[in-house]
Structure to design on (410 residues):
């Protein structure tokens, strides 16, 4: 949507369309900033947030800025202000009021889809060839929704070089129009599912929607921080291996509240910022207990019973000996009581370092069970179990050596 760092144009308030003022639009740290002399005539009536501001800019067309936070208000000889909108909507032909907007088609490019697919170039010393495009679609009848995953190769040619780039987008087509709040909800859930399966989502490059009244396309922009700089991959399942299961996975994510709750709780450990190992562990143990409460029938809703019900999966995912299982579970329970219930008398707790890998194990355990709900192939389950054992045993042992501390470890 924004191909340059700076644009020139004009702004006006919806209630004063005759009073247009000059504006410079700049992109700063993925935020839109509007530097302008468009301010209320009364110096004491300036709002902290303007719900809507309209504009027109060279190279962009008409723009509607939503929830414009006042970043700076200068009251010198010439009053000026800097507004930072939360959402921006562009259209080449007319102003859009997104609060009343109803759409039945939108598509989002980027978000890491091109990293996930095995769609690739093939070449030798004499020949370069590519598959021009790859498309997959499936219906979610409960929602009157068709989802398309599209992949293609973009190219540019000059005298000196040829540039090829993998691209991808996800497209939503609804039988009945939906509002922008629903659009964002579908986008967020879809991105969370991709992050859950692959762990490599990114910011969107384009967020386009079709105006049903005119049949033309507009664009939306906001600072998308969801899973910013996230490096942990729960599953990292190859696209080709999970493709046949995607229709049911999207259906579960968008229609099954229990499934979405569990995936959403798992992804809490991938929020922006650094979590302590103990905080990560408490997130994971609460997610595990939440999953069990929603999906496992036991007479007594106790953590010990939930762990016992998952014994075979815990052994398969961790690689620990069965003889150690009861002691292992006892230590998980004691650690939970220590960090969640402040039971300071518990001494049989995992170290801060060990809590990280217990957290990984519990997260994978929940993810493993969620995928079993849709009868995922045994090959994928075996791959997940193998990687989980390698992480819990191999990586834990390796990192324990790297972090050895003569004073703190004794």
């Amino acid at each position: 949507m924004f191909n340059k760092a700076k644009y020139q144009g004009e702004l006006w308030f919806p209630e004063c369309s005759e009073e247009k003022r000059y504006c410079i639009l700049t992109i700063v740290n993925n935020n839109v900033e509007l530097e302008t002399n468009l301010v209320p005539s009364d110096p004491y009536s300036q709002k902290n947030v303007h719900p809507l501001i309209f504009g027109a800019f060279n190279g962009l067309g008409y723009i509607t800025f939503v929830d414009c936070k006042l970043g700076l208000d200068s009251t010198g000889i010439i009053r000026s202000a800097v507004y930072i909108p939360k959402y921006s909507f562009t259209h080449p032909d007319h102003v859009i009021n997104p609060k009343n907007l109803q759409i039945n088609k939108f598509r989002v490019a980027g978000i890491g889809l091109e990293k996930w697919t095995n769609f690739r170039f093939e070449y030798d010393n004499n020949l370069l060839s590519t598959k021009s495009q790859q498309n997959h679609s499936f219906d979610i009848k409960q929602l009157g929704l068709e989802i398309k995953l599209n992949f293609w190769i973009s190219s540019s040619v000059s005298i000196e070089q040829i540039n090829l780039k993998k691209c991808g987008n996800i497209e939503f087509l609804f039988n009945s129009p939906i509002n922008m709040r629903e659009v964002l909800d579908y986008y967020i859930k879809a991105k969370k599912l991709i992050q859950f399966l692959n762990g490599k989502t990114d910011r969107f490059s384009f967020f386009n929607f079709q105006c049903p009244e005119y049949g033309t396309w507009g664009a939306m922009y906001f600072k998308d921080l969801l899973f910013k700089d996230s490096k942990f991959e729960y599953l990292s399942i190859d696209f080709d291996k999970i493709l046949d299961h995607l229709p049911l996975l999207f259906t579960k994510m968008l229609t099954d509240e229990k499934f979405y709750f569990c995936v959403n709780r798992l992804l809490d450990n991938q929020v922006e910022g650094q979590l302590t190992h103990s905080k990560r562990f408490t997130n994971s143990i609460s997610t595990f207990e939440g999953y069990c409460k929603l999906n496992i029938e036991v007479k007594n809703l106790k953590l010990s019973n939930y762990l016992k019900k998952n014994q075979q999966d815990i052994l398969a995912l961790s690689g620990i000996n069965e003889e150690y299982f009861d002691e292992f579970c006892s230590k998980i329970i004691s650690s939970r009581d220590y960090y969640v219930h402040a039971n300071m008398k518990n001494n049989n707790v995992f170290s801060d370092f060990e809590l990280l890998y217990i957290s990984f194990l519990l997260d994978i355990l929940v993810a493993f069970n969620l995928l079993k709900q849709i009868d995922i192939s045994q090959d994928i389950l075996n791959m997940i179990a193998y990687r989980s054992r390698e992480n819990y045993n191999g990586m834990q042992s390796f990192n324990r050596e790297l972090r050895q501390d003569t004073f703190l470890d004794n």
